[in-house]
């Protein structure tokens, strides 16, 4: 990350304290990371957004890195995850925010758009399906085999053992298998892996999967609609998510624009940072007019 001064603060929201990385001044852009990441997932976007005149807030979501890790599976239900984000938006002192989400952060962002539309200026999604479209695709072969890990993550204790085995070798392999080899340095990998050495951290992250593939949370996510200007950026070489999850986006976002990156994969904001930054800043600037 270029020389941008990043400050950290604790934000009390919805019964937990979340660590938030902050930089810049201007309209708020709130960056929501995915699994198994933390705020550093956005280190290549923060300087570009600050330079474009935005105030960037990049939290560690509940359960991750320096944020609180409440016990119990239900503490990671989408109603809590979206309420956390609502609390951060209110803490900014601005009436609404531009929400950007990748992977699990994207699913939270999609759901937030339906639950808290009055707090949302724009919505940007990076390689995260809308739950309604995922439900349509999940039993089709083109997606079924890509999403095998979700069933595995429902099991108790075994996923924790597999992911942490041999100094988190499997987790490191997930990043090293990037569509653009060399995207992540060893320091990058350690920044992702090290927080999971904390007690309960890996279980907390896996509880996102365990708490939200059930009727209540799934219905909340499937019913969420975005009325705000919406940008979807998609790395087409995603090993876990079919590009067919883009079909029908107009059903869930009335004002949606899709940008595809054929040579990038799941870690799109890190694999293609210049392209993503240009798309994101252009979208945000256009929405301000």
Explain this structure.
- This protein is α/β, with parallel strands linked by helices.
- It contains twelve helices and eight strands.
- The protein has helices spanning 46-51, 78-91, 104-115, 131-137, 141-144, 148-153, 158-176, 186-193, 201-212, 215-223, 268-271, 273-288, and strands at residues 7-13, 16-23, 28-32, 55-59, 97-102, 120-126, 230-235, 256-261.
- It has an eight-stranded mixed beta sheet, sandwiched between helices.
- Helix 3 (104-115) crosses helix 10 (215-223) and helix 4 (131-137) crosses helix 10 (215-223).
- The longest helix has 19 residues, at 158-176.
| CATH topology label | Rossmann fold
Low-confidence stretches: none
* Secondary-structure element string: EEEHEHEHEHHHHHHHEEHH
**How many strand units?**
8
Rg calc: 17 Å
Largest sheet features: 8 strands, mixed
User: Which percent band covers the strand fraction?
Assistant: 15-25%
Structural class computed from helices and strand pairing: alpha/beta
Q: What's the CATH superfamily, by name? A: Alpha/Beta hydrolase fold, catalytic domain
The largest sheet has its strands arranged as 1-2-4-3-5-6-7-8
Shape: globular
| Second-tier CATH architecture | 3-Layer(aba) Sandwich
Please give the domain count.
1
Number of helical elements: 12
List keywords for this structure.
289 residues, Rossmann fold, 12 helices
Describe the protein's topology.
Layout: E1 7-13, E2 16-23, E3 28-32, H1 46-51, E4 55-59, H2 78-91, E5 97-102, H3 104-115, E6 120-126, H4 131-137, H5 141-144, H6 148-153, H7 158-176, H8 186-193, H9 201-212, H10 215-223, E7 230-235, E8 256-261, H11 268-271, H12 273-288
Parallel strand pairs: 3-4, 3-5, 5-6, 6-7, 7-8
Antiparallel strand pairs: 1-2, 2-4
Helix pairs in contact: 2-3, 3-10, 4-10
